Amino acid sequence: MSALSPEQIVEMTEILVVLMGIGITWAVYYGSETAELPGDATDPDPHESDDAHPDTRGRTLG
Asked: How far apart are alpha carbons 18 and 45 in whole angstroms?
């Protein structure tokens, strides 16, 4: 026998799902204003050598 009624279990589940949604949304968008957007990247000079240690911070695919 459960200490919680079915209505309490459903209400607790609803609250936890909403909080998880807020947490996931925050995790996705946190720091996204510093992401490199398509069209913002500059083309490198072909006469310069590549960086020995490229900057890998941020949320880019490149």
From this structure: 48
